[in-house]
């Protein structure tokens, strides 16, 4: 998935070049929302994460289970510190997933942009830097 910040208008040429839906940040919250742009989507398997897609889905389902576990813990009046421990584990899981996806983006999309020239690579590096900034804020 590619991303843009609220300060940009729509998307970048680099974002379009690296496949898929565009994400637009909500200027009020900084949160992203995905806008499907099918015309810019590549053939199946064109994303950097394509080779690990099944593993990623499995990992996200495990994280989803942790979140559901948090809901159950609240319903069952579990001790606060035990819930916070689970929150930490869930957060760590999402962060780890995000870092893996970022690495795959760098290896695939940024490397692909490097072959297209300096303007494309500069746009991809800027895009990745903004994604890292968002990850650090969370």
From TrEMBL:
Its main location: cytoplasm. It is found in: Cytoplasm. InterPro entries: Metal_Tscrpt_repr, Metal_Tscrpt_repr_sf. GO terms for molecular function: DNA-binding transcription repressor activity; metal ion binding; transcription cis-regulatory region binding. Pfam families: Trns_repr_metal (PF02583). This is Transcriptional regulator. Gene3D superfamilies: Metal-sensitive repressor, helix protomer (1.20.58.1000). One of its GO terms (cellular component) is protein-DNA complex. Keywords: Copper, Cytoplasm, DNA-binding, Metal-binding, Repressor, Transcription, Transcription regulation. Residues 1-17 have a biased composition (Low complexity). Residues 1-55 are annotated as: Disordered. Belongs to the CsoR family.
């Amino acid at each position: 998935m590619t991303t843009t910040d609220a300060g940009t208008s729509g998307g970048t040429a680099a974002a379009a070049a690296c496949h898929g839906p565009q994400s637009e940040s909500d200027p009020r919250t900084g949160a992203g929302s995905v806008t499907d742009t099918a015309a810019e989507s590549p053939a199946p398997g064109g994303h950097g994460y394509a080779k690990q897609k099944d593993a990623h889905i499995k990992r996200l389902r495990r994280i989803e289970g942790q979140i559901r576990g948090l809901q159950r813990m609240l319903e069952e009046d579990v001790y606060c510190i035990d819930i916070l421990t689970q929150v930490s584990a869930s957060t760590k899981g999402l962060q780890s997933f995000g870092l893996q996806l970022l690495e795959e983006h760098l290896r695939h999309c940024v490397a692909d942009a490097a072959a297209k020239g300096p303007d494309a690579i500069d746009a991809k590096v800027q895009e990745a830097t903004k994604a890292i900034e968002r990850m650090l804020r969370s």
